[in-house]
Amino acid sequence: MKQRATFNTKLGLVMASVGSAVGLGNIWRFPCEAGENGGGAFLIVYILCVMVFGLVVMLAEFFIGRASQKDSVGAFKTLAPNTMWKIVGYNGVIAAFFILGFYSVVSGWTLEYIYQSVTGGLKTDTVEQLAENFGSFTSDIFRPLLWIFIFTLITHFVVLSGVKKGIERASKLMMPLLFVILIILCIRSVMLPNAIEGLEFLFKPDFDKIDSKVILSALGQAFFSVSVGMGCMITYGSYFNKSINMPGTAVSVVTLDTLVAILAGIVIFPAVTSFGISPSQGPKLVFITLPNIFQQMPFGNLWSFIFFLLLTIAALTSIISIHEVITAYLHDQYKMSRRKAATIVSLSGFTLCIVCSLSFGILSDFKIFGLTTFELFDYVTAKLMLPLGGMFICIFTGWFIDKKVLKAELTNNGTIKFALFSAFVFLLKFIVPIVISLVFINELGMF
Ligand code: PHE
Fold it and tell me: The whole model's pTM is what?
């Protein structure tokens, strides 16, 4: 049998997994959620959710991937032959396809904003004008599609180049760059007048603000942010070699992902409060409010350029991993060549993007359950498919898998220590499924 591709180095593997986790979720969605859910109160609950629930699901996914050496559907077919568990794998592949559809649209916008920063197009006087520009750009038919096409093309070639030469190399190059850019922006941001107010908003918890809405938003954000619940970490786990310390890797990935979210908060909130703007602006925060803020600072275009470059890099390494979930599935299950599999994913993904992108313009009246296609894919994946997938991944690993097999795999046959194994199993079996079902029930209630 052909040997499965693996990541070359430990650093490369951590960077690829961090690259998947760190994305628009951290830099765009996190500040948005934190802004709308009381800042410091949200942060504390979020950290708890991501460090416990995100970590547990991630480790379970790593286990499933490496133990089976298969894509997210093949993994369940291998570990639980002739059972219904493969549905969890299909749920992941379909979720990946939907996420690809809407996530690429926002990624395309980041390229437009890089272009605008370079050509000075963001030099408008008022927030209203920036909002108008944003509206007319996103509702245009061709312009967003052009950027989405370019983004898809870049993703396609990285995935085509394979696990080592494509994914690992791209992540190793881009993730450190992302950290450097983020730190430069943090330093700039905390030096702004009144920065302290923004920092207080982010770090000073007002415990009275913690209610069920805050807890549930934090949980949802946690799963989306660390890319769990849809087989992404199963697919990456299948490229780990047998000497990798999986519990350690999961801790590193989750910690770095959380760090990036906090750093993004440190960039954004002082910049917002310093200009007297309310932090609870929602999704516009990044594309309208921030360019406005940058333009009021010396070297505004440069700061915009750096920021949107950061957003593009973050989005790219995440999209690569989403693309890879489907490519690996087609490649493994249908014995397609990598080229053919990747081409099918890129073409069909782009077709879905067209529908999502047009839902900001000519298709804005086409609604299903009152949501545009863009909103629908976002809702269905982040709020239904990922929590559901995460829950079943835990139930599968906690109840179905022999604990001896689980322990042997996670400790590399007893060669590394995993002191918290019993706690991990308890979380898998009881705590995580119960809490996720509560989230899930609540989300359904909102339908
Ligand atoms: N975690 C990514 C982000 O924060 C999004 C993502 C979700 C990537 C699911 C892969 C799988 O932006």
Answer: 0.92
